[in-house]
């Protein structure tokens, strides 16, 4: 029998052998089975790949002045992947970072949380796997505190980056657009984007920044650096330099743009009910956009460094008038009498004599309804020249009614001629102009086919509303609810018919006619110019960082108006007298026509439940037009009272009447500025 002492010794030996066996197996696993994995992990902790963002290209005006440029800023970013591996999710690091930055830690947490349907700004709209810029206006002292104490700030970087700067502030804000981080969904959707994005790059979300993003963005570089276990840099192993983005030269003239912005702002100040305005300046001979403005506007720097919740709500708020929306290309409005240039051309093409005499009574009966001139004033027997000059409506009502009857009246006939709507489309109305900006609206030109298609699409809803009415509207506006219910009933019963009143309204740019200010400018450029309809362009040239021109952008000709030169000349001569002897004479009283003669047409469009839309479509010099200028003020009242004075101020700015000229001699540059390899710009 074994003694207890020998038994304990035996058990101890067995335990010792077992422990050695376990250690041996574990050592085999570490050295052999997972050896390569641990070696890779060890190497990974000694090196870091640092993305070097590419400097985004500038956007210049037609003389080389910056519309959008870059400025250096110290940017603090956090690495969400490293924060995710921390036990507290990086909370302790954020608290220390909040102390350095002097901001509440809760505010920093909001900036790095992912945006989502239930998460409003401030939040991070980009990929959750990419560095998140958390502060873009830090001081050198703050940056050094972070860089020199990396053990306290793991996953936090501070480095100099280029951020967007807008010298003109809110000028042309909707044209220029803005930048935002690319989302993970976008990267997942387009695999080819992954190789071009660093995760720190931003992508154009609107305007020129969006349309020319591929050229402006450039290509990021990469730096491979050695680091110690505390994350401090120990050396540079390799580096691939970034490729800066190209420069976009536009046809915008910054000085003219400023003049238009001031004119719109003043027009709205004088009309307190005005809720929006737009101004367009086109080069008649080339189709290039010299200025494009929309009010209300905003300062694009609000997007730099992440927009605040309050600013984002303001941009999206109806109380602010949706300043992100460009009313020049997206706003659709009845053009009123500015549309009559199309109607005159349509009448002449339809066989009405150009130099004939027409009766302009105070009112006419069409389809059992009275249609009147402004204030019901008759002008007797006049020609088309005077009809444009004095803005007679009844001549056009009668012509449209006669054409409507020839097309078969209410029942219609196969293949109707529809001269008014066809001429309007030939001038570019009812379709997008194709300008190099996103989100353009097509406008609307009504005709018989449009009416039937509209009825087919909406009759079911109209018939339902004819029974239920509009109780949600009736709570606040019973008369409007009653009006809408009556419209729904009429549309349900015979909404496919094209009524004579609709034809009459079309002839003076009322009713269902909708145009954008840019469309009107394009149409006037074709009428007073060479008869060609051009798709306008803002971009003029794209220039590589070494000064080489990558691409020159020319506005394409997309149509030719079916109006003979002598008819266009007749219309231009008639409009040339509007500012001196016609409906805009009051607005241009005292204007030095001997220096520059201006032609144009006023428009006052009625809008149900609102004040009138004020228009003035113009051109100068009237004898040989170089510019078309269109101004629209929503709820601005009469065209002669609001829009025409604004246009006058624009011409005074362009030609330097009572001030320094924005374009000396009234001549825009005929070629884009030259950019040397060292970055200097020669107009």
Could you describe the 3D structure shown?
37% of the residues lie in helices and 19% in strands. It contains 25 helices and 25 strands. The strands form eight sheets. Strands 2, 3, 4, 5, 10, 18 and 19 form a seven-stranded mixed β-sheet that branches. A hairpin with a 5-residue loop joins strand 18 and strand 19. The termini are far apart.
Please give a handful of descriptors for the protein shown.
37% helix; Beta-lactamase; seven-stranded mixed beta sheet; five-stranded antiparallel beta sheet; alpha+beta; 683 residues; 3 domains
In brief:
By secondary structure, this protein is an alpha+beta fold.
Describe the SSE topology.
Elements lengths: L3 H30 L1 H10 L2 E6 L6 E2 L5 E13 L1 H6 L5 H11 L3 H8 L19 E4 L4 H8 L8 E10 L7 H4 L2 E3 L2 H6 L1 H4 L7 E3 L2 H5 L1 H5 L3 E7 L5 E8 L6 E4 L3 H17 L5 E8 L5 E7 L13 H8 L23 H10 L8 E3 L2 E4 L2 E4 L7 E3 L1 H7 L3 H13 L12 H8 L21 H21 L2 H4 L3 H17 L5 H8 L9 H12 L3 E3 L4 E5 L5 E4 L4 E4 L4 H12 L1 H4 L17 E7 L7 E8 L6 E8 L8 H13 L18 E2 L5 E2 L1
Low-confidence stretches: none
What is the total tally of β strands?
A: 25
CATH class of the largest domain: Alpha Beta
User: Would you tell me the structural class of the helices and strands?
Assistant: alpha+beta
CATH architecture field of the largest domain: 3-Layer(aba) Sandwich
User: Can you say what the CATH homologous superfamily of the largest domain is?
Assistant: DD-peptidase/beta-lactamase superfamily
Distinct helical segment count: 25
C-alpha geometry? elongated
Rg on CA atoms, Å: 34 Å
* Number of domains as seen in the coordinates: 3
């Amino acid at each position: 029998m074994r003694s207890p002492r020998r038994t304990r010794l035996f058990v101890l030996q067995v335990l010792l052998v077992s422990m050695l066996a376990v250690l041996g197996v574990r050592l085999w696993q570490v050295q052999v089975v997972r050896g390569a994995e641990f070696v890779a992990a060890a190497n990974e902790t000694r090196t870091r790949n640092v993305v070097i963002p590419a400097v985004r290209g500038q956007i210049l005006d037609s003389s080389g002045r910056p519309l959008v440029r870059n400025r250096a800023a110290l940017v603090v970013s956090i690495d969400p992947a490293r924060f995710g591996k921390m036990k507290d999710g990086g909370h302790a690091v954020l608290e220390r970072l909040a102390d350095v930055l002097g901001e509440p830690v809760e505010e920093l947490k909001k900036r790095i949380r992912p945006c989502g349907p239930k998460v409003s700004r401030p939040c991070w709209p980009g990929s959750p796997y990419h560095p998140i810029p958390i502060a873009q206006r830090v001081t050198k002292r703050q940056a050094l505190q972070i860089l020199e104490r990396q053990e306290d700030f793991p996953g936090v970087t501070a480095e100099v980056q280029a951020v967007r700067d807008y010298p003109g502030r809110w000028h042309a804000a909707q044209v220029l657009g803005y930048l935002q981080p690319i989302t993970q969904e976008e990267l997942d959707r387009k695999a080819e984007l992954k190789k071009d994005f660093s995760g720190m790059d931003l992508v154009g979300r609107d305007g020129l920044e969006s349309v020319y993003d591929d050229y402006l963005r450039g290509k990021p570089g990469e730096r491979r650096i050695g680091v110690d276990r505390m994350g401090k840099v120990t050396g540079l192993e390799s580096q691939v330099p970034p490729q800066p983005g190209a420069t976009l030269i536009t046809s915008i003239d910054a000085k003219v743009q400023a003049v238009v912005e001031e004119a719109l702002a003043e027009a709205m100040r004088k009309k307190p009910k005005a809720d929006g305005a737009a101004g367009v300046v086109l080069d008649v001979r080339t189709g290039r956009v010299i200025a494009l403005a929309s009010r209300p506007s905003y300062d694009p720097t609000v997007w730099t460094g992440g927009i605040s919740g309050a600013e984002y709500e303001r941009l999206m708020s109806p109380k602010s008038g949706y300043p992100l929306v460009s009313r020049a290309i997206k706003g659709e409005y009845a053009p009123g009498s500015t549309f009559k240039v199309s109607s005159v051309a349509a009448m002449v093409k339809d066989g009405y004599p150009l130099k004939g005499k027409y009766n302009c009574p105070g009112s006419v009966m069409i389809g059992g309804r009275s249609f009147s001139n402004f204030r019901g004033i008759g002008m007797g027997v006049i020609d088309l020249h005077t009809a444009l000059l004095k803005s007679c409506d009844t001549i056009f009502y009668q012509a449209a009614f006669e054409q409507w009857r020839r097309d078969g009246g209410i029942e219609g006939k196969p293949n109707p001629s529809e001269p008014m709507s066809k001429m309007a489309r030939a001038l570019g109305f009812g379709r997008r102009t194709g300008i190099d900006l996103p989100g353009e609206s097509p406008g609307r030109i009504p005709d018989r086919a449009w009416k039937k298609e509209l009825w087919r699409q909406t009759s079911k809803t109209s018939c339902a509303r004819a029974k239920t009415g509009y109780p949600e509207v009736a709570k606040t506006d019973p008369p409007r609810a009653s009006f809408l219910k009556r419209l729904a009933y009429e549309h349900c019963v015979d909404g496919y018919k094209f009524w004579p009143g609709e034809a009459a309204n079309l002839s003076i740019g009322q009713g269902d006619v909708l145009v954008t200010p840019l469309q009107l400018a394009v149409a006037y450029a074709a009428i007073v110019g060479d008869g060609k309809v051009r798709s306008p362009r803002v971009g003029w040239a794209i220039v590589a960082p070494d000064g080489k021109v990558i691409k020159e952008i020319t506005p394409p000709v997309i149509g030719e108006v079916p109006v003979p030169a002598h008819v266009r000349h007749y219309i231009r001569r008639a409009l040339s007298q509007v500012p001196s002897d016609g409906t805009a004479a009051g607005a241009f009283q005292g204007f030095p026509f001997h220096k520059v003669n201006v032609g144009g047409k006023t428009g006052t469009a009625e809008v149900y439940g609102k004040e009138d839309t004020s228009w003035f479509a113009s051109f100068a010099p009237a004898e040989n037009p170089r510019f078309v200028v269109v101004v629209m003020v929503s709820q601005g009242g009469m065209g002669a009272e609001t829009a025409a004075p604004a246009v006058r101020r624009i011409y005074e700015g362009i030609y330097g009447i009572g001030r320094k000229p924005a374009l000396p001699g009234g001549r825009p540059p005929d070629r884009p500025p030259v950019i040397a390899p060292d970055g200097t710009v020669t107009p």
